Amino acid sequence: MVEPGKRTKKMRKIFYRTPGGETRTRYKRRKSKKKSCEICGRQIQGKRPGRAYSQKLCPSCLEEFLKAKARAEEGQPIPLKFRHLLKSEAE
Ligand SMILES: [Zn+2]
């Protein structure tokens, strides 16, 4: 049996044939899914660790969100689509 670390879904099995005709298995880690914007679903291109919401929102949704957040501080209601972001921030 293979090592416990290789018995998981994160590992991809690759079968290859040796010159002697034998089939062997090689294990490789699967590629992770690309991140997408939580609001519009657009794929996030680059991720800067220092940037706010860099792994959650695309640039245009971030701009909209920051505006809504500033307006919320002045007493205006925050749009429904952004409320889950504020909840996760409070925790
Ligand atoms: Zn977006």
Helix content: 25-40%
List unreliable stretches of 5+ residues: none
Tell me the overall shape. Answer: elongated
Number of helices: 2
Rg measurement, Å: 22 Å
Q: Which strand order does the major sheet show?
A: 1-2
Portion of residues in beta strands equals: 15-25%
Outline the secondary-structure elements.
Layout: E1 11-17, E2 23-29, H1 59-73, H2 80-90
Antiparallel strand pairs: 1-2
The structure holds zinc ion (ZN).
Residues 37, 39-40, 42, 57-58, 60-61 line the site of zinc ion.
How would you describe this structure to a colleague?
With 91 residues, the chain is α+β, with helices and mostly antiparallel strands. It folds into two domains: 1-32, no CATH class; 34-91, no CATH class. 29% of the residues lie in helices and 15% in strands. Strand 1 and strand 2 form a beta hairpin. The two termini are 43 Å apart. Residues 37, 39-40, 42, 57-58, 60-61 line the site of zinc ion.
Features:
alpha+beta; 2 domains; binds zinc ion; 91 residues; two-stranded antiparallel sheet
